[in-house]
Amino acid sequence: MGVTMPARPVSTWGMAWRLTARWSATLVMSAFLGAAIWAVAVTPSPQRWLVLLAVVGSWLYSVLVTVVLTVMLVRAPRATPRG
Fold first, then answer.
1. Distance (Å, rounded) from C-alpha 78 to C-alpha 71?
2. How far apart are CA 26 and CA 66, in angstroms?
């Protein structure tokens, strides 16, 4: 049987900060996507769908980068208190 470590306590402030940061990032990315789609939709162009595909693709890429960076930061080892 393996040794289980007790869960690290997370303060209410820490949880609230993380939740606020995640929702803020989600809102910013959604606003960017909405504005980009609106800009493409109101611009008459024969290549509208190609531009729209590029916009959505770049947005999905930014979401992927955000998720990867968040996972890397969350899994990064924490400094232990000295003394």
1. 14
2. 10
As a whole number of angstroms, the distance between CA 19 and CA 39 comes to 30
Query: DSSP string covering 31-83, please?
Result: HHHHHHHHHHHHS--TTHHHHHHHHHHHHHHHHHHHHHHHHHHHHSPPPPPP-
Measured between alpha carbons, how far is 69 from 51 in angstroms, rounded to an integer? Answer: 27
- pTM for the predicted model, two decimal places: 0.47
Which residues contact residue 51 at a Cβ distance below 8 angstroms, ignoring those fewer than 6 apart? 40, 43, 45
Among left, alpha and beta (phi > 0; psi -120 to 50; other), residue 7 is beta
Give the span between the Cα atoms of 49 and 56, in whole angstroms.
10
At 41-71, the pLDDT tens digits run 777 777 778 877 887 888 788 788 878 877 7
